[in-house]
Amino acid sequence: MRRLARGIVRGAAWAVLLVGSARAEPVEGRIDALLARMTLEEKAGQLNLISHEPILDLGSFRRGEVGAIINFSNAGLVAQADRLARSSRLGIPLLVGLDIVHGYRTIFPLPLAMAASFDAGLLRRAAAAQARESVGVGLNWTFSPMADVARDLRWGRVVEGLGEDPWLTGRLAAAQVEGFRDGGLASTLKHFAGYGAVLGGRDYDATFVAPTELHDLHLPPFREGVRAGADAVMTALTALNGLPTTADPALMTGLLRRQLGFSGLVVADWQAVASLVKHGVARDGAEAVRKALLAGVDMDMTSGLYLRHLPEEVRTGRVPEEAVDAAVRRVLRLKFGLGLFDRAVIDPDGAEERLLRPETRRLAREAARASLVLLQNRDDLLPLDPAKVRRIAVVGPFADSAWDQVGPHEGAGQEWDAVTILAGLRERAAAAGVAIEFAPGCPRVCDGRAGFAEAVEAAARADLVVAVMGEPRDRSGEGSSSAYLSWPGLQHDLLAAVAGAGKPVALVVVGGRPTELGPALAHAQAVLMAWLPGTEGGPAVAETLFGDANPSGKLPVSWPRTVGQLPLTYDALPGGRPHLPGSRWTMGYADESPSPLFPFGYGLSYTRFAYGEPEIVTPHVGVGDRYDAALEVRAAVTNYGTRAGRAVAQLYVSQPVAGRSRPRRLLKGVALLDLASGETGTASFRVPARDLGYHEPDGTLVVEAGTYLAHVGGDAVATRSAGFTVETGWRGPPGSDEARR
Ligand code: BGC
After folding, report:
1. Tens of pLDDT along 453-493?
2. What domains can you pick out in the chain, each with its CATH number?
């Protein structure tokens, strides 16, 4: 019902039909009527999602063999396909999907970078803007957001997600779901489940996740996304504990539908049904189809096997027709919910006007600014002072690389739309009468020193050097896992050479994810993580370097010193031998510190914040029969620096003694405070008591009575702490926390 009610927002015509539960019946009635008229082939057609291929069988649309399409990202093609589908015997319109990961044409920073804002409202507005561009070309469904937690930075897909923490990921993924809906797109939570645990960070490799970890770490973001009303859930391409998710009924039906209460559409990932044969759990396509459908997978993405085999599987009795009907019903419900039956075919002539609108570009710039993380600022080098800095040398292979800036998963994004960091700096510097000299020093691969001398000379002539270095776009994204976290080529040598000119260096690091910074921290006084900042990345970086904007981004992942530390996350268990520097028999490495270079949640500002002692408003939290009980914490935050800035106050909770060893601390709340210089604000947090608990292997939620600690500060090392107790514990059988919300 919640899902149907949401349809009102989308289709004005449907508002008449969908208000209130009684009025929802006509939709179910219309679905019944359609189902009653459909042949088995037409039913299989509704479950068939095809991609745009160079040679397309247009007749398949007319025959009702296609229920959804992907990669038809051209308004004319979409319109043609939709027209053909509507001319089929039953005239059922198409779901038109695409991965809108960080924008359609106006490209925002990648989700991992956006997560650095810790700002759910911003992610919601960004998703809505991305959706509004997309619907103009006829898209009505996105395969986003990715709710997989980023547990190993070698995994290229960390850029598509929202960081290592399940609470933050859940909150931000839910915001994206809401934003896509605001803008008119159906959303998909992906990839269910455990994809973030691929062995060695190798994309598509196996995942082995203990049941407790599955419930505590991997499922919570999906739970939040489902609660926010996600329309679809996608399987993962991987096998979880030996069973491919696409063939796992306990996962796709037991956990997803029964425990998480998801009632929407389940779509297989790309060719995931066919891949069951490669995984070695199906002899042939027919068996793959049987296993996937019976596991609870409604729609087959691009393997074509449902269309080919499902009718026969039903006729021979191997698959009950009711199971097929239930899947078709979910597809039709989504189509009705989107108002597709009552909407005209899109107007391709209006598509262009929706792209790259000034307000969308402005929002992309705001998002890029909010994602910047200031990692180091020795002697307050930044923001640069135009009264003293009259000439800037811009060096580094990524200063003028629009292609990299736009990043992977770029939708219909074009490099020529993007304003590079160099271009942004040129414009901003001109306004301040500051000269810019550009000498990249080496090409993108940075495989030679021929340009070093020119860069060093430019540095020597300048008052300040802005070095833009890091990773190209192809070192992250799907299918781009990497064994190294180092910068390609001779960039560190270039930086050392340029620093040798003796001028202060502000290093702007680009790349989808954290990389090894090594000697760069010594060579550069200031270090700003810019990620791959998208279409408006250049102005965002320039405005920040010049101090028009004050950075407030916080790391959504722990920043490692070296790749050998991976996986490395802040929420580790304490262990029986916690690390003691210099003590060999404690947890760690013989040759490297086990701590990150920068902790989760870390990021500097041009101003400074002081956190007061946390005040526990609810020192005795009585969970027991009061399921709505909550922990409330307040802390004063003072901006004692000289500029206005945003504090990102973070609340972590720990349970020092419990029935099971628990993570050292867990993020449970974020408060964003915009404070003027000298101003004190109050960070207020409210944590539902159920969020203090952990899960048993079967999904039972346990909130233990006992003593807990609340830690408040500006990163995961937050040192201000106060205790509280949970008076009466609570145990909820699997799924009961959903039922009671
Ligand atoms: C990815 C999905 C994506 C799909 C369609 C797959 O390879 O794993 O995340 O939605 O392709 O582009």
Report:
1. 999 999 999 999 999 999 999 999 999 999 999 999 999 99
2. 2-351 (3.20.20.300), 372-565 (3.40.50.1700), 609-739 (2.60.40.10)
